[in-house]
């Protein structure tokens, strides 16, 4: 419980990381991190976040023609456009032609937290992270398309007036 409080309050980790249905999306989802990563790996990630940056979470720095410098994490990047989430969580989209420069860096936007937590606090935080072993996501509420269920999809070919999925039905015809 002490580590969970440190995660959400003192460390502010939830501003960037998702746990279950709570938190931000700038950094990796930590819902199952205790099952996926060792205690040593978790400690190193907190103390030296640049040591092993999760794929898709490398730092991206871009400069626009009007002189704005934006640092964040790429959400999509191709030959023509870039979409990035800045450190405040705001998403920016640009045509690459609108940029003066775009630099991909193999460093994390996450700061090192070595000086933030005492030894006891670090142990509490690690205990909390290692306890995150299963999805705590809650089922989502039905949407306006709740009429679209498995039975309806299985019988898609029987109704020539509907096109319920890519390829029209599970057979692709």
Give the helix level as a range of percent.
Answer: 10-25%
How many separate helices?
Answer: 5
Give the strand tally. Answer: 7
Beta-strand residue fraction: 15-25%
CA-based shape: flat
Report the uncertain regions: none
Element-by-element helix/strand order = HEEHHEEEEEHH
Question: Strand order, biggest sheet?
Answer: 6-5-4-3-7
Mean pLDDT: 86
N→C terminal distance:
53 Å
Major sheet characteristics: 5 strands, antiparallel
What gyration radius follows from the Cα positions, in whole Å?
21 Å
What is the SS-derived class? alpha+beta
Structure description:
By secondary structure, the chain is α+β, with helices and mostly antiparallel strands. It is 23% helix and 21% strand. The chain has helices at residues 2-10, 33-36, 39-47, 119-131, 150-154; strands spanning 18-19, 22-23, 59-64, 69-77, 81-86, 91-95, 99-105. The strands form two sheets. Strands 6-5-4-3-7 form a five-stranded antiparallel β-sheet, with no helix packed on it. α1 crosses α4. The termini are far apart. 18% of the residues are buried.
């Amino acid at each position: 419980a002490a580590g969970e409080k440190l995660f959400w309050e003192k460390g502010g980790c939830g501003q960037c990381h998702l746990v279950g249905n709570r938190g931000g999306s700038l950094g990796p989802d930590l819902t199952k991190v205790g099952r996926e990563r060792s205690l040593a790996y978790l400690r190193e990630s907190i103390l030296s976040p640049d040591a092993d940056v999760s794929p898709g979470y490398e730092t991206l720095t871009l400069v626009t023609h009007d002189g704005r410098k934006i640092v964040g994490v790429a959400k999509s990047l191709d030959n023509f456009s870039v979409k990035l989430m800045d450190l405040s969580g705001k998403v920016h989209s640009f045509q690459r032609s609108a940029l003066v420069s775009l630099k991909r860096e193999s460093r994390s936007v996450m700061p090192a937290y070595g000086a933030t937590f005492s030894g006891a606090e670090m142990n509490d935080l690690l205990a909390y992270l290692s306890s995150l072993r299963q999805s705590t996501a809650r089922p989502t509420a039905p949407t306006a398309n709740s009429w679209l269920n498995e039975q309806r999809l299985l019988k898609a070919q029987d109704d020539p007036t509907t096109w319920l999925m890519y390829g029209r039905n599970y057979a692709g015809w």
